[in-house]
Amino acid sequence: MNTRIAEVESFVVTLPRDTPYLGPLGPGETVNARGYLVRAGNRTIYPTVDRSVVIKLTAKDGTVGWGETYGLVAPDAVTAIVADVLGPCLLGRDARDAVVIQEDLRDLMRVRGFRGGFWGDAIAGVDIATWDLFGKLTGQPVVKLLGGQRHARIPAYVSGLPRATLAERVQLAREFQARGFGAFKYAAVVSHEGIAEELAALREALGAQAKLMVDLHWQFDAASAIQLIDRLAPFSPHFVEAPCAPEDLDGQARVAATVRVPVALGEEWSTVHDALPRLQRGAMAIVQPEVAHCGLSQFMQIARLAQAFHVRVIPHATVGVGIFQAASLQASAALSNMTMHEYQHSVFDRHLPLLRTTMRCESGAFTLPEGPGLGVEPAEALWAHARSAGSVS
Ligand code: MG
To answer: Which residues does the annotation mark as catalytic?
Structure first.
């Protein structure tokens, strides 16, 4: 066994989809020449395809580790960082030093804006690949390396109801309920019939036991958010997500202190330094780390810090082929304060044939993939959708 990293490669994986992420185009929404649309509800840009960046690390003995991060927009910003900066600094490092390597990579840009964005995503992808390689080299599932396994099944909530009308969205939720799912989240930016109206309709259709959540997508100032959440409260939401702008820490804290509904935050965070001031101010009841932004090392640091504040962890799941999904499940399986995991059914199920894995999401829960490392390997089918975007050796 030679555990030193000998090659760092990155790939952009692009997968077509019939309906854009979050649902059909709304009033006034159009697709531009680059294939992007801007959602009117939150003024955020999204691609019309599914896209992510896959990282491959090869050790000197030939063992391979896989990572993945965001590639929704400008994926080559991430691949350029990997090829130009991170890759050369990884060569010769011992993959079993995953946390130490991640700390060193963040230090490279400490005085030049190391806190997030494409830089954070690039580190996240590399960090996930380092953990996978660590597991493959030692024959251990990543969950064992993260402190030990507490869960074999991870409750899943259905995320997003990408249909054009409220009646169709309610029907889709009913179909998932019939398949054993008990928790559902809808996206306020496509609640064209009204945010409170959508929650009321889902509650009536799915019954008192269903866990219902809404993603408010950072749309509101604190006063407006409080007013809206007061209207949602009679329908007993399990949580409301991202009521205020990510930079509005005061607003986040004021909302959480005022409403009687648990608030969830954190999908955009890159490091524990995003979580710390919000935990100190009681700005949320639930943290939602996204491993494709923060990587496994920071995911665990955020989750363990939340544990110390008696705050729950319900991880976020973005658009990818399933490699970072496996990483997020490995981390989730180690945590006593994890209660559910997001299930992006419109992404996860379609992309599963691109991986060799036992990972599944059925009857309301994820099963943790078996095998060393993350428990996923790209299948041959993946490479038809991948473009090589750099190699350092
Ligand atoms: Mg969200």
So the answer is: 316
Per residue in 354-392, pLDDT (tens digit) is 999 999 999 999 999 999 999 999 999 999 999 999 999
User: How many angstroms is it from 215 CA to the middle of ligand 1?
Assistant: 5
The predicted-structure confidence for 93-137, as pLDDT tens digits, reads as follows: 999 999 999 999 999 999 888 889 999 999 999 999 999 999 999
Number of other residues whose CB lies within 10 A of the CB of residue 308: 9
Rounded to whole angstroms, the Cα distance separating 275 from 156 reads 23
Domain at 177, CATH number: 3.20.20.120
Structure tokens at 63: 């063992």
Q: Residue 360 phi/psi, 5° resolution?
A: -145, 160
- My answer on whether 25 and 107 are in the same domain is yes
Residues 98 and 243 in one domain: no
For 191, the domain range is: 144-372
Ligand 1 midpoint to CA 268 (Å): 9
Instruction: Kindly provide the b/e burial profile for residues 318-345, where b requires at least 16 CB atoms within 10 angstroms of the residue's own CB.
Output: bbbbbbbbbbbbbbbbbbebbbbbbbbb
Give the Cα separation of 139 and 83 in Å (integer). Answer: 28
* Distance between Cα 247 and ligand 1 center (Å): 15
Residue with tokens 């491959």: 56
Q: Based on the structure, what is the number of domains in the chain?
A: 2
For residues 350-359, b (16+ Cβ closer than 10 Å) or e, as one string?
bbbebbbbeb
Instruction: Let me know: does 346 contact 19? Beta carbons within 8 Å.
Output: yes
Same domain, 116 and 190: no
Output the CA torsion 193→361→127→141 (10° steps).
160
